[in-house]
Amino acid sequence: MKFGRVLPWASRAAILSAAALSGCGSNDETPPAGFSPGAGGSGTLDPTNGMPPGGGGVPTGNPDGMNAEGNPDGVPLDPTDPAAQPGSPVEPPPAPPLSSGTGFAAVENLDRGVVAVVQDGGIFVGWRMLGYEYDRDAPERITYSVYRDGVSIASVADSTNFLDAGGSPDSSYAVSVVIDGIEGLLSPAVAPWAENFLRVPLEAPGGSYIAHDSSLGDVDGDGKYEVILLWQPDDAKDNSQAGVTGNVFIDALQLDGTRLWRIDLGPNLRAGEHYNQFIVIDADGDGRAELGLKTAPGTRDGTGQFLSQGPAQGDDDGAVFRNADGYVLSGPEYFTVFDGLTGRELDTAEYHVPRGQVNAWGDNYGNRVDRFLAAGAYVDASGLPSFVMARGYYTRSTLGAWSFRDGQLSLDWVFDSDETPRDANGQPFTGQGAHSLSVANVDADPEQEIIYGEMTVDHDGSGKCSTGIGHGDSLHVSDFVLDRPGLEAFKPAEDTSKPYYTLHDPNDCTILQQSDQTGTDVGRGVAGDVFAGNPGAEFWASAGVGLTSATTGERLGGPQPASINFLIWWDADETRELEDGTSITKVGTNGALLSCADCQSNNGSKSAPTLVADLIGDWREEVIWRERDNSALRVYTTTDLTTRRIYTLMHDPQYRSAISWQNVGYNQPPHPSFHIGSGMAPPPTPDIRAIPRPSATPQ
Ligand SMILES: [Ca+2]
Ligand SMILES: [Ca+2]
Ligand SMILES: [Ca+2]
Ligand SMILES: [Ca+2]
What we know:
This protein has about 700 residues and is mostly beta strands. It has a domain at about 1-195: Immunoglobulins (Immunoglobulin-like), CATH 2.60.40. Helix content is about 5%, strand content about 30%. The chain contains three helices and 41 strands. The strands form eleven sheets. Strands 9, 37, 38, 39 and 40 form a five-stranded antiparallel β-sheet that branches. The two termini are about 35 Å apart. Bound molecules: calcium ion (4 copies). One calcium ion binds near residues 219 and 222.
C-alpha cells in the first residue's frame, strides 16, 4: 500500500479544494485507516508506506467506506499531473493511515465538526480532534491544517482552534488532520456564523409547550449530531402534585431546524421531570442512533402509528388509565426503542420492573412508584451501549439493562434492592439514589458501572457497594482528587441526620470527605475544578457550603461561585465555568462571559439549560438554550482562543454517557473520566473504537 507524499501547500490546497468541490469524498470527510495510537502496537508509522514498522498489522477498515474504497491504494498525487491542477476534478488525496480505534467502547464516527464565527479581529475557527487521532506519548505527530477558501492558511499543533485575522464573513473554512506529515481528507467547507450562536427553528406542538430537555445522537449516520428534544406541556407536574397533564412530545431535529419526526407519548405517560427519561445512543452499532424510553398504550411513534410490537400488539390504544388526580397507576407499561432517523417503533417490551403495589414504593398516591432514572451505558461485553432503565430511589431501587441487537430488545439483567438489600459491609442498597445518576468505569474491567447516588451497581447488574448515606438531590462523578487513583463521587444529603455532603470512592464506597455539619436537607451541590488556585477539583453546596478543596476538605477563601447549578468549559483556560439560567460566569470574574436575554432556562428554580455538551467545534462545550417563546433553540459556541488541545469530549465514554443521561430527573452537568483543569495531565488514551458509518447514508 502506498500513500501519497505531502505536497507543497499551494498545490495541495488547490487539489483539496477541487476535491472538496467535486463531490467525491467531500460530503463527509473520512477518518483515514490504519493508525491506532495506544492500541495494538507503537502507533508509529513508516511515512514511506504508511504502514506500521515491519509491516505488521492491517489498517483497520475505513469507517464510512469512502476513503479506503474510494482510493484503496492511496494513489500518489503528482502536482505536475494536469488532473491535479486547480479546478480539475481529481480523486481526493490519500489519507494518512489511521484506524478508527480498536478499544472497548463503540463510539460515534463523528465528522470534523468545523465551526467558524465572525469576530472583531477576524474569523474564529474551531474543530474536533477525534479520540482515535490522539497519541498520548507523541502528541506532536498530529497537527491540523486550516483552509480558507480552499487554500491552506495555517498548521495548528497546540489546539483545535484558530483565529484567522485575514478572514472575512464571506470566507469558507475547512480542516484536515495531518499525522506524521501525511494529510487526511479535508472536511466540507463551512461558512462563518455572523454571531456566536446557531438558531435552530422549532415548531411547538401547541401554544402551551416548552422546548425542554434535549439529547444528542447521530440519527442518520453522517457524523453530525442531531438534537432530540422533549416538549413539556406547561401543566407538567412534580410527582408530589396532583393534576392531569398534557401529552409529552419528542422531536428529532437537524441543526438547520429540519424536523425528522415527532413522537407523541400519549395520555398514559404523565408529564414531569421524574417520568419520561429518554436515552439516545447507537444501541446496535449500525451507525445510527436509537431512542429508548418508557411508553404505554396510546403512544404514537414518529410515523404516527400506535405501538404494535411485542405486548403492544393488539392493546387498546384508546384506553386512558390515569385517575382523577392525573396519576397513571394502572395499565400496561412498556419500554420501546425507536429508530432515530424515522421515529418508527423498532421493538417494544414489557417494562422490566412493573409498578406492582403502588404503596410498596414508599407512599400510596403514586409519587415514589414513578421515580424513573435512565442512562446509556457501556455495561455489555460487546462494547455497545445499553439502555439502563431504573425505577425507584427513595426506597426500593431497581435498574435493568436492555441491549438492542438485530432489531430486538433483550433484558440482560435487573438489579433489585428488594432482592439484594445490602452490600458486603451491611450497608443498604435501598434508598440510596439521587434525582439523577452517573455512569463511569470505576474498576479494572472495561465496562462501566452505574453510580446510583450513594451506591454503585456493577456492570453485570450485581450490587457493588453502598455508603448508606441515602438519597440526595445531585450527584457528580469524575476524577476530582488528583493524587488519588480512581474516581470520586460528590453528593449532598437530604437526610438531616447525615453530613451535609460526602465525597466517596464509587468503586468501594469508602467515604473520603464529609461535612462535619448535619441537620439540613442540602438541596444543591456541585463538584468541578472552577478555581485554579487549588489543585484538582472543588465542591460547593447550598446550606452555606462554600468552595471546598476536594483533595483536602479545606474551605477555600476568596471568590465564591455565583451559582450551584451547571458547569461548562467555555473560556481559554482549563478550569470550568458556571452555567446557570441563561448565562455563563466564572469564579473570580465579575459579570457574565455570555448571557442571552432572549432565552429561557427550564424547570423553574432549577434553571437548567436545554443541554450542555461538546456538540461541535473544539473540546469546549456548547450550551443550548431555548428562546423565550419556544420558537427556536440557540446553540452557543465559544470563540475564546485556547492553547489547550483535547479530543472531543464525546469520545470519552463517561462524558458521552453523561450526555445521554443529562435530561434525566433533575439535570446535572456532564463530567469526563479524567481531570480537565489546572495542573491537568495529558488526557488518557480513550478506550474506544468508532462505529463504522452506514454504507449508504440516507439524507
Ligand atoms: Ca447526523
Ligand atoms: Ca443504531
Ligand atoms: Ca468497570
Ligand atoms: Ca465544542
